[in-house]
Design a protein that fits this description.
Layout: H1 9-12, E1 35-37, H2 39-45, E2 48-53, H3 63-76, E3 81-85, H4 89-101, E4 104-110, H5 116-124, E5 128-132, H6 136-148, E6 153-154, H7 160-166, H8 168-177, E7 183-187, H9 192-204, E8 209-215, H10 234-240, E9 242-246, H11 248-262, H12 272-279, E10 287-292, H13 301-306, H14 317-324
Parallel strand pairs: 2-10, 3-4, 3-6, 4-5, 7-8, 7-10, 8-9
Antiparallel strand pairs: 1-2
Helix pairs in contact: 3-4, 3-7, 4-5, 7-9, 8-9, 9-10, 11-12
């Protein structure tokens, strides 16, 4: 019996991507992520809220959509290695897709600024991890310079192939809904994903309102995936979307509620879109898609800091029943 073949982004959307017959398919089965109704949050917000669950991608974040295209094009161009600066999700994705393609991967990390779950993925996939004594922006500057020297192919979202792959999420949203949502909200870190959604919607000839949600304290937010002081795509992202700022407390509340009310465990930064909806309530009856960008297992340390620990009990039914009440 022939096993089923999972079709990834390049095969599914080949006619809308910058690929040729010479472009290899470097896939881990990315894309095709679910669009989940959120009935309890919908009732609270007075809208029809749907969650685009990008944590279902192979390495647990939306980055895989763009990385499959960027790495495939790097292979096509004869590259031997890729490089990126990362606050976590890009490193995991770059390492996995480089391994899939047989390339070396080098990851530059801002020292002390990346969640351990994300580092574990990149380490497991064999990437060379270097902690830069500085910010994400310092690490990105170094990665860009090494790429300019011709030593590596840069696979951050400054690589245009990344955005081309990421725009496919917009195609999926419109396809599943049978049309565009009234409003799309998503986290705002570097701005690449905002730009990619806008690109995808524009290609389809639709123009939903886009709201990108950032942390008030970008440099120090607990939402490490959006801890980026100087967004690389600021000009284009802010031309395409309204920007809303929320506190870390608002992000944490949305993060807890996504798990406790809707059963969706995401990393804190992924809850920024829901926090933004609470800050700027949509019109009653609005159809809203909120992009949940990464899985909660990316950042288990936040659970340790904020959720009650397990309670020790005797192996006795009455004691267990009392403790569970």
């Amino acid at each position: 019996m022939t096993p089923p073949v999972t079709v990834g982004v390049v095969e599914r959307w080949r006619d809308r991507l910058p690929v040729t017959e010479a472009t290899p398919v470097v896939s881990l089965g990315e894309g095709g992520t679910p669009l989940l109704p959120a009935p309890r949050l919908s009732a609270e917000l007075g809208c029809e809220l749907l969650l685009k669950w990008e944590g279902a991608n192979p390495t647990g974040s939306f980055k895989d959509r763009g990385m499959t295209v960027a790495v495939a094009k790097a292979v096509e161009e004869g590259a031997e290695a890729v490089i990126c600066a990362s606050t976590g999700n890009t490193s995991a994705s770059a390492a996995a897709y480089a391994a899939r393609a047989g390339l070396r991967a080098v990851v530059l990390l801002p020292q002390g600024g990346v969640a351990l779950g994300k580092l574990a993925q990149a380490r497991a996939a064999g990437a060379r991890l270097l902690e830069v004594r500085g910010s994400f922006d310092d690490a990105l500057d170094a990665a860009r310079e090494l790429a300019r020297r011709g030593t590596y192919v840069l696979v951050n979202s400054l690589n245009p192939h990344r955005l081309q792959g990421q725009k496919t999420a917009a195609f999926e949203v419109v396809e599943e809904l049978g049309g565009p949502p009234d409003l799309l909200t998503l986290p705002y870190g570097g701005g690449g994903n905002t730009r990619a959604y806008a690109l995808g919607f524009d290609e389809l000839g639709v123009a939903p309102r886009i709201v990108s949600v950032q942390a008030v304290e970008r440099a120090a937010t607990l939402a490490s995936a959006i801890r980026i002081v100087a967004p690389a795509h600021r000009q284009e992202a802010e031309a395409a979307a309204e920007v809303v700022s929320v506190s870390d407390e608002e992000i944490l509340r949305a993060w807890r509620d996504l798990a406790e009310l809707e059963g969706l465990f995401c990393e804190p930064s992924s809850a920024a879109g829901v926090a933004g909806l609470r800050a700027r309530r949509p019109e009653p009856g609005t159809r809203v898609v909120c992009v949940i960008t990464g899985h909660g297992l990316k950042d288990p340390a936040t659970v340790d800091r904020t959720a009650p620990p397990p309670v020790a009990v005797e192996a006795d039914l009455d004691a267990i029943a009392e403790a569970a009440a």
